[in-house]
Specification:
The structure is a homodimer. By secondary structure, the first copy, chain A, is α/β, with parallel strands linked by helices. In chain A, about 50% of the residues are buried.
Chain lengths: ~625, ~625
């Protein structure tokens, strides 16, 4: 079974019969659910493991081009002759971009996931998806013989043996695609008003083009107002129900992880690790890594200025790589130490004998900017960097990256931001905040699996380190960067499957969008905060400093309270909470990262309430 | 769906009707295929994701106890009263060991994998597996009502509505198991001649105990000579055919990786990564890591003397951890440099400023032991270690660990062995060869996924390093060891899913056995060697030094030959070969590690021959 990773969507057409509804937008921008049908289709493709989508545009192409800003896995190409040519011309407009087997879709389709899965799981190389009778009024009937298609026509009388109706979703092999290309090249008359269905029919005699029939497939092509009405009233609700059932079948038991990562992931991220074995020194894997590197930078809006350097390690490995690679021997970093991860920076510097100045703050208190500046000013001659943790999960505090960066700029220092538990959960802009080095990992708010850390480096700042004396080998930033740049290979063997999971997780991030993910996290936090306060809990950190991704809760003084027993009670019921870690008061911690929803937090609060009441634990009011 | 990871096999019985066939061995040691039926059952359980197996023994228990040496995931416990008690007493003998839901099996069963899968995938908590009519002569009939069982009897007349015949494989929840225990505790008369089937019947009224019927299940319980004959002639061949079909259904595309790791893995290892999300600071995950640590040491027979320290990194990370943690500041390592990985040791020492002496050998030539000893002798005052690569994949040479170790012992030095590509492929005994530190990774001959490196350390040698000045943070061996020992947690976030894959890969290693894996690898090598010689190729390294896991082949001089074109030709056909790397002559490399078979090598050779002839490449004879 060859895994299909690419889809081509034909979206050049005008859709004149629908003008009244979609106000002159292309047909794909009709909206039935909560987003345009083209974006529904895109999300469905991504959740079924497609990794790149080519859209052939024409009419009002800028609508589709705009999607590229939102979804970096999309490429568009325009058929300039869209008004006078058929879909086959459009399909061949994409030939520079197509270099593998692909799914071919029309842009105006609403369909259930099963449509994609049946083609993706088929062992046949070329498969045309058919459905039972739709009564749509403009059906394309497909004639078949055995497993193969014979012809297609809008006239049922042209069909000898009916296989079903054409849906407009097909699996096309690279080989067949090339033959389709040769076919139109050798028939000049077929360059213009000729459709891909016609071409498939023409080639069906000499090529194995199979069909797959799903008798009661939930789908509709929206060509006119009547279709539109039917889509809203009948088909869309049916698709939603069917898709939720499909997911149920292969669902992995879902644990609600309220620890600060590794976080709860989607099933699609989990299953994306099951791939054919590959040697990571192959070009194909290099392209995967290259795409991930670019997208990791794009998430923090540094595509023109920054580079991502990846390591097979935990997040701490990434921090160690950064600190040991960028602080020159004769300089020092000012480390803000207001949590266990600030302290870890200190430990790393101690391990290597790197110079640093510590700004110690009790764990739970915020950074005082005046004091920070005094520290900087007093040591300005030896400092090269300010290093700190963005979201310090020890206490759930958000350190003010913008204000700290301003101080750094004033004294011409670079900043190193450990954004382990904020990256992809809280919007970050490395250029707006002048962040030189930012570190995170694959298993926090980006919602992939643990095993990869990465440092997003300002290009010039990284280049400067090329001449620095090496302090280690595995973790040197510049050497890892150079190796990849030269060979498009990771310097050392990467955790292959974790890269596939990260690819899927990043795609799902873009589907949810920066704003959408942050909104979901903040909503969960608000529900959590309200619920905890209602139960009588108090927070370690003043609300105005809350990162809204983790909340440190002061432990009850009631003698019936015991963290381990509470943890066990909740764990047995599917909720994983986290103990405190060296804060100024005793706490436990509740994170709200990962693929969770506010309903999960509500269920958690109900379960916590049950624990408290069944153990007769009272909270000080 | 709660994932079942434990199985209990009832194996206390005498099996008196079978004495003539099995020579007084317990029934499980009957042999139908190429191993005793109990080992068939064990392998089938492991390949279906079971991770620990409890065998309740009685009659001739030492046969079962011996299995523990071969399979570390087995625990045995003896029912001392096996001659006078029923199976319920046996089942409860295991109560100290059972702490989760489990599969319950009888020891004398031959069955197809579908029997296990149907129970493992069922969403019901308690399920009794039933089959259609077998005509076996001593059937246990099961009466049912709706989804539930009602009663069981050998007399069909006792049954109101027949659900099917009892197979002897069931899924039992922890909760039901406890109720079964209470039931016999409160009925003293039921302590002795009482069977688990009776207990299930007694509890069926008040508990939801469901059945699952597979009408045409391929299975047999072997109680007498007639069963034995039927098993050999009919059932066993059917089981083999059915199991190969089941595997086909979920098979991932199989690439033949002939690069020196990451290697081709089984589908069961791939799917073992799809697990419910878990916080790796939970006790449950700590137990997983602890079990893996023990088994990694056991593979090189160091369970009484050595400890495994694990890192989230590539294999190089493990080498860096070892070199930077164990060589004291005032001492030096002698590094044998006869390949890229010996050279890498040098680069690591350079990165940190660790003292070393190099014994340089052209890549492709073997170690000369006299010369090595001269080097050692000349530097004996400053040396503390000899560091070298066991199987140097740059050239496919096997460096003689025994002889090198003897020299080290003579001069009272410790040895550091990079066994990246030999561990689990070539038998190693850390005590016989006095290896102090041995490094490998999860993705080579152990056949797991990339992302974990490990150092297997002699306990005393590791302890000695506790006081050494730290050279780094993430990779300090002793600190990582101490952290795990104290908390049973990895010091830094581990790649969770890669650990699950490694667990499965280790279990599959024990199923194949040390001898079996080495034999399979050597057979592949012999086929490869013969085939390459027949084609006219020559080897870089004299055959007597071949590691038999990778062969470096001298590149043809024919002008039509081009490595990249050859690679591409083979890659397109599913075979991944590997370029040369700095050897004294131009080579390409063919590894034979991973879940491959000699048939794969034969197919590779045929494809290589096609490449040569279709490109008219002639080889010098």
């Amino acid at each position: 079974m060859n895994r299909i990773r690419c889809a081509v969507i034909l979206a050049a057409g005008i859709g004149s019969r629908l003008r009244s509804i979609h106000n002159d937008k292309p047909k794909g921008f009709l909206q039935i659910g909560d987003k345009p049908i083209i974006e529904e289709s895109i999300a469905r493709l991504i959740y079924n493991g497609i990794q790149s989508i080519i859209i052939v545009t024409g009419y009002k192409n800028h609508f589709y081009d705009d999607l590229k800003n939102k979804y970096p896995f999309i490429k568009t190409i325009k058929n300039d002759h869209f008004e006078t040519t058929g879909s086959m011309f459009s399909l061949f407009t994409a030939k520079e971009l197509v270099n593998d087997d692909f799914l071919l879709l029309e842009s105006d389709l609403l369909y259930e996931s099963n449509a994609l899965q049946s083609l993706l799981h088929s062992s046949d190389k070329n498969v045309i998806l058919l459905s039972g009778a739709t009564g749509a009024g403009d059906e394309v009937y497909v004639g078949v013989e055995g497993k193969h298609i014979v012809n297609m026509s809008k006239k049922i009388s042209d069909i000898k043996k009916l296989g079903g109706e054409l849906v407009g979703i097909s699996k096309i092999s690279q080989e067949l695609y090339e033959k389709m290309g040769s076919h139109i090249d050798s028939h000049q008359d077929k360059k213009t008003n000729y459709h891909y269905e016609d071409c498939l029919t023409d080639l069906a005699g000499d090529n194995e083009i199979n069909f797959h029939l799903i008798e009661d497939l939930a789908w509709i092509e929206i060509d006119d107002e009547q279709h539109h009405k039917r889509a809203i009233e009948k088909i869309y609700p049916l698709i939603c129900r069917r898709d939720s059932e499909i997911e149920l079948q292969k669902r992995v038991e879902r644990n609600i992880l309220l620890n600060p990562g590794p976080a709860t992931t989607t099933d699609t991220v989990k299953y994306s690790m099951v791939v054919e074995d590959i040697c990571p020194r192959e070009r194909e894997f290099g392209e995967l890594v290259e795409g991930i590197r670019k997208d990791l930078v794009r998430i923090v809006h540094g595509e023109d200025s920054h580079e991502a350097v990846l390591f097979a390690s935990s997040g701490t490995g990434g921090v160690e790589a950064c600190l040991t690679s960028v602080i020159p021997d004769d300089k020092a970093a000012l480390i803000i130490n207001n949590g266990a991860y600030g302290k870890r920076m200190v430990q790393i510097c101690d391990g290597y004998g790197i110079n640093y100045i510590k700004y110690d703050i009790p764990f739970g208190d915020p950074v005082e900017l005046d004091k920070l500046e005094q520290f900087v000013n007093a040591n300005k001659n030896i400092l090269s960097h300010i290093a700190f943790v963005h979201h310090e999960t020890t206490v759930g505090i958000l350190n003010p990256v913008g204000s700290i960066s301003e101080i750094a700029q004033k004294y011409n220092l670079e900043i190193i931001v450990d954004a382990m538990s904020s990256y992809a959960g809280i919007p970050i802009d490395v250029n707006k905040d002048k962040i030189h080095f930012l570190i995170s990992s694959s298993n926090k708010c980006i919602q992939g699996m643990a095993g990869i850390s990465f440092v997003i480096c300002n290009r010039e700042s990284l280049q400067k380190t090329s001449a620095y004396k090496r302090r280690n080998f595995y973790f040197n930033l510049f050497d890892n960067f150079t190796f990849f740049s030269k060979s498009r290979q990771m310097q050392f063997t990467p955790p292959v499957q974790i890269f596939y999971a990260l690819r899927q997780a990043i795609n799902e991030y873009f589907i949810e969008t920066e704003e959408g993910r942050n909104k979901r996290y903040v909503e969960m936090y608000e529900v959590l905060k309200k619920g905890l306060l209602e139960l009588g809990f108090k927070f370690l950190v003043d609300e105005k400093y809350h990162a809204k991704i983790l909340t440190a809760v002061i432990e009850p003084e009631d003698k019936n309270y015991d963290f381990n027993r509470m943890h066990h009670y909740l764990y047995e019921r599917g909720f994983t909470i986290y103990p405190g870690k060296g804060a100024k008061l005793n706490t436990f911690r509740i994170a709200n990262m990962g693929q969770l929803y506010k309903e999960d937090i509500e269920n958690f609060l109900l379960t916590l309430r049950d624990y408290l009441s069944s153990n007769r634990i009272t909270l000080n009011s």
